Amino acid sequence: MESTARYPSPSKAKFAQLIVGCIGLFVAMDITVVGLLIEPMKHELGLSDVQIGLIHSTAFFGAYGVFAIPMGILVDRSTRVRLLLAAVVLWCGSLFLIGLSHDVWLLALAKGIMGLALALTYPAAMSLMADYFPPAKRAFPSVTFGMGQDVGAGVGMLVGGVGFSALVALVASSPQALGGLSPWRAVSLIFAGCGVLLIPAVAMLREPPRMERQASGSGSLIALWHFRSLLIPILIGMMALGGLVSGLRTWFAPALMRLYKLQPGDFALWLSLIMLIGGFTGHALSSRLVTLAHAQGGDRKAMLLATVAAVICVPSCFLAMTSAVWGFAILMTVFAIASGIAVAIPVIILNVRLPNELRGLSMGLYVVLLSISGMMGAPLIGYVSQQLGGDQMLGQAMAVVGAPFAALAAISFVFATRESVTERERRFAAAHQVSTQGI
User: Is the pLDDT of residue 18 over 90?
Assistant: First the structure.
């Protein structure tokens, strides 16, 4: 039966959108900061590149994937605001644990908790946006979390890089200035404390009524199977993009430090601006492109744009093989914009086209596949780098691993346009004897 509830007022919806964007900012800021601290963390704890990849990607994405479907189902059946609140608390706790870790396994546990928190955060945030905004106005809210992540990545790189360099200088002049803490540990603890300030704002959110509901009990994998011609190629493509983005982003800062002999303070400003402007532009363009594409050709045109963006990602994977830093910067800008578009367009389509009780489950399934590829991306680059000859082959390894991931995403997205949305929704409605009005 179709819901008779009304969408929340525009002011409440905009407030919720702001909070979701701030959560995305906080999440990406912390991930970026922890990635920025890889080199000092590696040297203090005596870790290899493979161990770094396993801790920072495998432990994180392993937990992210294991809990994704259960958390997605929980989002479809529980109070999403409370789940978001729990996720922010877990995230802050994981940062505190990272800052205090003196053991590889404790560090891996902290990253696992961070993965669990994100498994709660993403589907809950996407589901809330779908119930705060009607379908015709949902494209931009659907990329709000991603745009917040873009801002957070830039802020994390800038503040984390400059802050880390300042703390290094402070400890060099006064070894006991931080109470015996290493600068990278102090940065992690400071960012954890900043996250605590977000908790009251999340608690102010109100749970909206669930809109666009279909038949009772239809929120299952069997019901989701009716959308397989759209879902399967999109999920494969998103899985490939997950491995690409997580793998390359993990090694951006180490590549600049190893291959171009820079310190975090040397590249924090311009790298943060690229991550901020490039990623933000990619997500902002995606919402506009989807709106224009639907006016002309529906999903087919929108997915074609995602395909083109994925193709553009292929040459940008060679960024760390350029002879000068400016070449790295140009290709990284291209990568940030193109990957943002390629990731955001399929997410918008799923959040608009799938009925309410399938959104959390579909996002959970997406997260599982994203986690599998994310677990492989960074360690695989580290492994290939070692096989090619060591630290100075990191640029080649990023290209060898990243380019095939981007190509696979482009090929998969081509197959996502074979069947019209109208036909998918008609079959689903017929199977469950419901109306598709408002989808």
Answer: yes
